[in-house]
Amino acid sequence: MKITFAEKAPKNSLFVAGIYEDASFGNVTKALDKLANGSIKVAVGNADFKGKAERFLRIPSSNGCGGQLMLAGMGDAKKHTPLALEKIGAKLFACLNGLREKKAVIDLSDIPGIKEHTAEKLVAYAASGALIRSWTFDKYKTKREKDEIPVLDELVFITTSAKKSQEVFDKLAAIAKGNHLTRLVVSEPPNVIYPESMAKYAKELSKIGVKVDVLGEKEMTKLGFGALLGVGQGSIRESQLVVMKWMGGKKSEKPIAVVGKGVTFDTGGINIKPSNGMEDMKYDMAGSGVVLGLMKSLAMRKAKVNVVGVMALAENMPSGSAQRPSDVVTSLSGQTIEILNTDAEGRLVLADALWYTQDKFKPQYMIDLATLTGAITVALGYEYAGLFSNDDKLCDMLTAAGSAVGEPLWRLPMGKAYDKDINSDVADVKNVGSGRGAGSITAAHFLERFVNKTPWAHLDIAGMAWDKADKPLTGKGATGYGVRLLNEFLTKNFEA
Ligand code: BES
Ligand code: MN
Ligand code: ZN
Q1: Which of 76, 244, 444, 462 has the most Cβ atoms closer than 10 angstroms to its Cβ?
Q2: Cα of 430 to ligand 2 centre, how many Å?
């Protein structure tokens, strides 16, 4: 998809005019109407179009405009935020694509801008929304009818300064590309995405300046990754720990660490899951997918920050070599874990990855992302990811970043009474609570036992990584939830 910015509209393309839902609405349409010989007034009246955000009106063959015309509802300009513009851009993309347009020129040159959100910046966000939405996963569809193949491949945004909009857009495009990479690996089937192929995706990033190290089973056995290796021991796929480094900040500054659950398929293991819906467990590596996408966007936009990204990769399979309920493993931390349910595997791969990361990189903050519990969707549905933390300031920073980009977080409680629930009778800790509810919280407590004093946050994204309904920015399927959130968190707090 080609996106450019210009100050004057090129001719001979579909012309999209931004229309604002306030006093200027009448004036704008009047001016356009004059150009289009009165056809707009009739069309707007018939469709009852008032410029509401994310509403569009296609006006066929309006002679006088140099061709085809469409009105794009921009909503109330006084309420314009970057996120609002991204959503408009995304919906516009979907609409144009549905109409099978090839190219469009979108005139937002009269967008007013508000406070720190300049007109040129808001236009860049509209373009970013279109770019985010433009990603599709159709590589395995070999037999589509011609009229099912999307054709829209070029957008030109008209703005008061093409240079200023382009500058903002370059950063946003890097974030969008990260989001696309996450959605790709999350969408790929588990016969294509497994620990070693995820590691390969990471190694690709070394071309753009990310330093990548991979530990295989041999190295992890030597180091003592008993918890992570136990999860992968029933699979023919080799478990991997991937460390990616982007050191764009000051040499003296301790890194921010981001750790992702990467269970490339979660059958449940010997505690096997029911068949209904098991296919969803291809996205049980979404936490790692976010770490991968984040590292890509940091490198692409040359972020001035030090970030270590870690992917904890294993496949959870039942087999003759799989771990059993009641097995006891020794984690990298030295703590022993009684495995009471082989389906509570995410916390096991993270236990070793978190311990390794804090010990080796001494991060100033450590954040993990994981499709950790089904219980989080019982608590929060598909609207918020769960946030758990030992640090109030970190929670505030993450929550603010999440609401700015529309990837919201809701903090849930932690405390001694919950923590007691994972004490084991035979080992230091057991991998499931005693079945007294609060499954997402006891899971977070399990992770906390492998964190020590590092300021840490855990994002349970089980309800957010995949959407069965249509999201404005990302449509159906993999959302890439977390990439934009963490970019915002890093930019706002560490790159100033
Ligand atoms: N990967 C699942 C959690 C999950 C559920 C992610 C739905 C995405 C959508 C996780 O490994 C799991 O199986 N959790 C168990 C924990 C239980 C055994 C304590 C669960 O949620 O049932
Ligand atoms: Mn599981
Ligand atoms: Zn899982």
Answers
A1: 444
A2: 15
